[in-house]
Design goal:
Strand content: 15-25%
Order of helices and strands: HEEEHEHHHEEEHHHHEEHEE
Number of strands: 11
Largest sheet: 7 strands, mixed
CATH topology of the largest domain: Ribosomal Protein S5, domain 2
Helix content: 25-40%
Structural class: alpha+beta
Oligomer: single chain
CATH architecture of the largest domain: 2-Layer Sandwich
CATH class of the largest domain: Alpha Beta
Distance between the termini: 36 Å
């Protein structure tokens, strides 16, 4: 699918009355990258997220003439287009809007290792990568607070956006707390072939929960935070598998979840949970051999449930979205 530049321009004009300004010369190209992330980590619904070593990398090349183009390699190569829902373009356009700039005609190249609609923060990574690309194109920077504000507005919640922006383990809020993840931490992922859209999975949640369940989750979330911020009590990650606010309701649409969590825990994982809104299941441990065993155990359990998928073992990452290449601006004639 594609959207005409005229439609995109109309959207920008409706969204802002900022005065426009000219850029005499754009950089020859800019390249940015942003990491995947796993939100919630069980009981920390909409509050916790962990950046993971899977990356979206994007190169933007402004061009003087010709049609705008997009080339995608890796995950989503057949799904990502120059349409109105492209989160990278949304982030880039909203970022440039902050500087009073219209986007140039661009050649965009993406290399994406983050599965789409699997609860691994693919949309947040794209939104944040777009914002970083906007900064590089404009030759200016936005504050961390403003970047997060824009990314949260695009995404609808701050957890994945915070992890994609800042890396590491984050406690999400308007002013998130960020911590380097424990050096020994390893994540085992089971990634089902089935996609679960965040909006649909949120529709399964009740508008109200009991004080008993809320108090239960506060305690379990505190344990997960203690584990990931101290590094000395990773055994407390067992609390990941004891949520009452969202997973019990999402099981209606993903009934295999309890068996996958149980398989990972029985294989030695310290904790396991639905990653974001799913469908990925994440298990955390402090030993790569155990992580691989947990991944294999989840795959075996899934096979017994007629659920196809794949496994990955990855490390958390301390780095967030960043500029990786920006040559000097094109010379004016």
């Amino acid at each position: 699918m594609s959207t005409t530049r005229g439609a995109r321009k109309a959207r920008r004009e409706r969204s802002s009355v900022r005065p426009r300004r000219d850029v005499p010369n754009w950089p020859a190209r800019v390249s940015v990258e942003a990491p995947a992330s796993s939100a919630n980590l069980g009981p920390g619904f909409d509050a916790l997220a962990l950046a993971l070593d899977l990356w979206l990398r994007v190169t933007v090349t402004p061009i003087d003439a010709g049609a705008e183009s997009l080339k995608v390699e890796g995950e989503g190569a057949e799904e990502i287009g120059l349409d109105a829902g492209n989160r990278f373009l949304i982030g880039l356009e909203q970022g440039l809007e902050e500087f009073g700039l219209d986007p140039p005609v661009m050649r965009i190249e993406m290399s994406n290792a983050i599965p789409l609609a699997r609860g691994l923060g693919s949309s947040a990574a794209a939104s944040v990568a777009g914002l970083r690309a906007a900064e590089a194109l404009a030759g200016e920077s936005l504050s961390d607070e403003r970047l997060l504000e824009i990314a949260t507005a695009i995404e609808g919640h701050p957890d994945n956006a915070s992890a994609a922006l800042f890396g590491g383990f984050v406690i999400a809020s308007q002013r998130p707390a960020r911590f380097d993840p424990p050096a020994s931490l390893v994540a085992a992922l089971f990634i089902p072939d089935v996609a679960l859209r965040t909006a649909r999975m949120r529709d399964l949640l009740p508008e109200h929960v009991s004080h008993v369940d809320a108090a239960h989750n506060v305690g379990r979330t505190a344990m997960v935070v203690a584990a990931l911020t101290s590094g000395a009590r990773l055994d407390l990650l067992a609390a990941m598998s004891d949520d009452r606010l969202h997973e019990p309701y999402r099981v209606a649409h993903f009934p295999q979840l309890p068996e996958l969590v149980r398989a990972a825990r029985d294989a030695g994982a310290l904790g396991a949970a639905l990653s974001g809104a799913g469908s990925t299941v994440i298990a955390l441990t402090d030993d790569e051999t155990v992580a691989r065993r947990a991944a294999d155990a989840m795959a075996g359990a899934a096979a017994g449930l007629d659920l196809n998928g794949r496994t990955l073992v990855v490390r958390p990452v301390a780095e967030g979205a960043r500029l990786i290449d920006a040559p000097a601006a094109l010379a004016t004639e």
